[in-house]
Amino acid sequence: MSADLDQVFAELRGEADTVPLASPAAARRRGTRRTRSRSMAAAALAVCLVGGGTAWFLRPQTPARPAPTATTTARALPRAGQPVEYGGQARAAKTVLLGNSAYTVWQDTAGTVRLFAAPLDRPAAGPMRATAVTGDLDGAYTLEGTLVAGARQSTGYHVWGLDPGTGTTRWDFAVASPADLALFSQYAVHRDRQSGLITGLAVGTGKVMWTTPGDPGPGVPLLPVTAWDRQSKPASGSIGPVQPSPQAVTIIGGRVVALEPETGDRVFDQPLAEPLVGTEAYAAWDGRLFILRPGDRYEIVMTKLDASGESKLVWTGDAGRTFQSMHGCGQHRLCVADEDAAGAGQVTAVDYTLDTAANAPDWSAPLPGRVTGMAGGILVGGLAVTTDAGTALFRLQPGGFVATEPGPLASYDESDRSVLALPATAGGPVTRVVFRSGQRQLLGSIPVPGAGCFPAGYRLICPGSTSLSIFQLPPT
Amino acid sequence: MTETRADAFDAFYRDTSRRLTRYAYGLTGDAGEAQDLVQEAYARAWQRWRRLAAYDDPEAWLRLVVNRLSSDRWRRIGVRRAREAAAAPLPPVGPPSENTVLLVRAMRELPADQRRALALHYLLDRSVADIARELGAAEGTVKSWLSRGRTTLAAALLTDREGVRNVR
Question: Which CATH number fits domain B1-94: 3.40.50, 2.40.160, 1.10.287, 1.10.1740?
Fold first, then answer.
């Protein structure tokens, strides 16, 4: 046998690339635990040194504690058919619904991405189809009969439109970052950072509908303007949510520009009140663009994307507080999460229709930990703020804290405004949480992690690491 | 869609974790240990993410952490204990191939600078200039490390597999 160093190293690289890795969230949790352990050790040492004095630091009020977890002896949710095996270990799997079938795209440990369909009423794997998807599988949707899949690559992010029946590629394009992509029910709008060119594409056919010049470079994200009263498809991985709304908004040449996704027409075009400094954050909501301007006291400026073009300051953070995230939350409300120097998080709902001089929040509440994000698009009538101590749920009114959930959430029933709280890392209980009453109803337990699970009617669909499981949810 | 601190960290993790795993695997030759070291490195990165995110090359900082952890047996044991105590087990991984075992064993006998230079060159496709920048050495020095490292590895592998394998 003959081998040279290149070959031996190549063999080692190949083996290394099959090593399964935990999720980035797991690394964050571990990092957070380390910080806490060290803080606790330091606190314990301090207590000893002062001769038994009590040093007991309380996090700001409730909701500091996670909601009581339902007992793990809950009755198992019945399965709808046997698990549908992938035929291998998946390092990522996404399931989407189209018609009466669940389409699962999954990536094996060697990086190959495959696709299969399973009928919802009698789950069984249809033919396994190869796809052209490469990179790290990240998100998936079905839009206009096309399975849209996104993957992170070393050079950026790539999006494919696949034929769900055959797995063949209908269209594809690359962007530098998911921030350069806005998905709508029928169109994908994306921006090329090298040329600045913005393109609108029909997701059903792949037909390029229009192009228009934009700013080259990292620039400002392309944002779909979300609507407070219309449900969107939740974010999948780092793409989405998918909006039925009629506008994508960005900034081109120092002007706030709203584009119509079908035609590329500029339905709003107005100069910015102040030039950007490059460290802003953005949110588009309820026909408005919100721009965060960092500073000793951060500011949030709103521009109304209509004929009035009204632009005004709607919120100024308290001194010493650091902005973390913002998201629309109900009619005429923007929710802003920030934290103090010690990392104590807080969420504030701002009524942006009020006179800014008041700078008075509609309501404000402490958070159980450091803010890591806000859920968009999964909740109607509620707000979910993810922190390193769990996800805090609020109904949209003063004193509206509902619960802190340790695991992932999924939207459940819009009519009664409830969500499903799912098990975090391994199997565990599935609990329905009603925003209005705060009522928690244990529905049963599942033997798989809840990440990636989503309800569809009376089914709970869970793409796991080796198989697709479908469970039956009890009537509520 | 607002990109939060966690979003930025997660994107960084997704973009870099596969490369870091290669590097860790190259230094340890053990998939389970590489998993642990990579997770520990990212956990530490998350603790100081605000500062790290502003670095020109935060990935190089991660490699430094992996270097330190991999070269200290007691730290490695600590890392594994910490993970076993606090996290769900990762999926099991198969044993390394015979070639990998031999290569990693030979790598461990090399001086640290040579080992790091070889790992950066062969596992991460870094140029001599990049390696020189990361290790704070002159390009000529890096070329010398690579040359000497290759020679030593080839000899070691030949010895290990004498009569069975010829290594150029």
Answer: 1.10.1740
